[in-house]
Amino acid sequence: MQILSSLRTLCCVLLLSCCALCGAQTPVSPQRAAQMVAAITSTAASTRTLRADFVQTKSLRMLNHKLTARGRVIFAAPARLRWEYLAPTAYVLVIDGEKVTVRSGKNKHSIDTRQSQIFAQIAQIMSESVTGRSLADTRRFAVRLFDEGNTWTAELTPRNGALKRLFATVRLRFDAKRRVVTRVDLVEHNGDATVIEMQGVQVNQRLDAHAFQVD
After folding, report:
1. Phi, psi at residue 149, to the nearest 5°?
2. Tens digit of each residue's pLDDT (9 = 90 or more) over 102-119
3. How buried is residue 28: exposed, middle or buried, by Cβ count under 10 Å (0-12/13-18/19+)?
4. Rounded Cα gap, residues 69 and 178, in angstroms
5. What is the Cα–Cα distance from 135 to 40, expressed in whole angstroms?
6. How open is the CA angle 45-188-55, to the nearest 5 degrees?
């Protein structure tokens, strides 16, 4: 189904960087990890809205060139997300509760996530990764945390189900002071790498009334 392919591709975009990002470092102690998770989830719980621009760089394992795209992301609690590519091509994905809508060019598709477990899980992880809420979900993820001073990095490994089949590792980087996500990374099983860098992150600002509409 086209919309499933689009959603899976975008989810891969949302959730990777170099495999060496955390590999050469030592995770923090369990006590320190608990403090960091508590701080991040507290900020996430108070995040009513989030808006940012992003730059996406995708490196394919079998090729030597990189693909770059630019766009913007808008989030509103509890489960509304707009992920929009502006260049080089226009593409929009909107999650509004249990409804997912994708527009590519003149084509628009919608689906009710209640009809598919994989749609529901992907939509949930996309929304949670923007704010860092996924750190508290130890049922679905094994989590390791790294304190790099001004930056905190969370490495999430899916434990089972559809997410484990889709992703090898999810990495989230946070501004340690603001405790907001500045980079959302994904490692796919085939080694493909995508880096999403968030720019100009604004939290709890008023959103346009039509932010989650797809024309």
Report:
1. 85, -100
2. 898 889 988 887 776 666
3. middle
4. 26
5. 8
6. 60
* pLDDT confidence of residue 24: 43
- Write down the CATH superfamily of domain 2-19+26-203: Lipoprotein localisation LolA/LolB/LppX (2.50.20.10)
pLDDT tens digit sequence for 150-186? 999 998 888 877 777 777 888 889 999 999 889 988 7
Distances (CA, A) of 72 to 82, 103, 108, 166, 197: 8, 15, 19, 24, 11
Is residue 77 within 8 A of residue 132, CB to CB? The reply is no
Write down the pLDDT at residue 126: 67
Residues 111 and 97 sit within 8 Å (Cβ to Cβ): no
76 pLDDT band, cuts 50/70/90, is: very high
The whole-number pLDDT of residue 18 equals 32
